[in-house]
Each structure stands twice: as structure tokens, then as C-alpha cells.
Known about the structure:
The chain has helices at residues 3-15, 40-55, 64-75, 80-87, 91-100, 114-118, 124-131, 135-153, 157-167, 169-188. The two termini are 48 Å apart. Among the domains are: 38-102 and 156-174; 105-153. 62% of the residues lie in helices and 0% in strands. It is built from 10 helices and no strands. The protein is mainly α.
Amino acid sequence: MNDKTEELRDIFTDVTDGEETVTESQEDTRGSLERDERSTEERLESVVQQMRERYGFDDVSLSDDELITVAKSFYEGDSDAEIADALGVEPETVFEARMALHLVDEDDADEVDLAAIRNREEDDATLADEYDVDETQIRRYRRIAAAEDESRTANDRYRDEFDSVLADSELSERMTTDVREDGLEDATEGMETDVEF
């Protein structure tokens, strides 16, 4: 070791509190298209539990597992009646569960402007006459408007999480499969397979 090198080593050890070497342990990580290592079920369970803690779900008679089924089925395009049939409950129970989970479909209130009835103080009968629907339908519209308001108050965070888990899961699975297949193709391209040992 020449004088300059030794001088640099001395400076280095002074700066590093006497350590002769500085090494950082490296972790062998692989890239992933998925942002979360938890399973789809675990992520859904987490969202449902957070929502139950925050909102109470007093009007919801379904268990967390059943609520997860409602969310999955909703994203698969099933109607309330189809989901209710699968769970052995009434469609109205599924509707209430969807509203509690902020899963409002664009077809839920396509006949009425929710913004127009959102803050109306008239009773259900008056609005039902005005919109030429029955009171049950007005109560339903008001429940949809309330669910949308609740979702907006939470910055649509729970709906976004459902979107992330359920709407993107099929795409993510398809992409990871394609990447694996492409990677295997690239790795084996040009290899001789007829090799004798």
C-alpha cells in the first residue's frame, strides 16, 4: 500500500468511526406487477373490516365473508337478485350491502338526477308524486345518494381499493402470466436441447 492509499484509508476509517469496511447487505428482490403481496381475499377482507369499523354497518346483516362475495359478484357483473340467490338472502339485503360498501352502479339511479333529490327536505310521498315513482323507489334513490356522499367524504378511497383489487386483478394475472411466458421464451431461445452428457 503506498502512502496516498494509506492516507485515504486513515481518512475513511476516521469518517466511518473506525470501521474498516462499509458494506450494505443487499436483498435479492424480484420485480412484481402487483403492488401488494397479500392475496386478493386478504386485501378484500382488510377493506371490508376497515369499512365496518368506520361506518358500523348497522343496517347490514351480512358477514364479512358474505360482503366480500357481494363485492366480487358486483365486479363480475351479477345483479342484486343473482347475488341474493347465491347467498340465500333477499335482493334488498344485497342492495343495502352494496350501498354500505359504496358499490353504486351507474344503473342504480339512471331514471333520476340524484343531485336534484340529494338535499330535498320534502317527504318521500311528495318526491314520489313529483318524479312519478313509488315511495320505495324514492327511498332507494335517497339511499344511493347517501352512499355516494359517504364515498365522496372518504375521497372514494374504499371504492378505489375495490377497483384496485377486483377490476385490476384479472389484468394483473394475465400480464404476469404473459411476462413469465415471454421470459421463459427469451431464456430458452437459441438453446440446444439435444445435448448428450
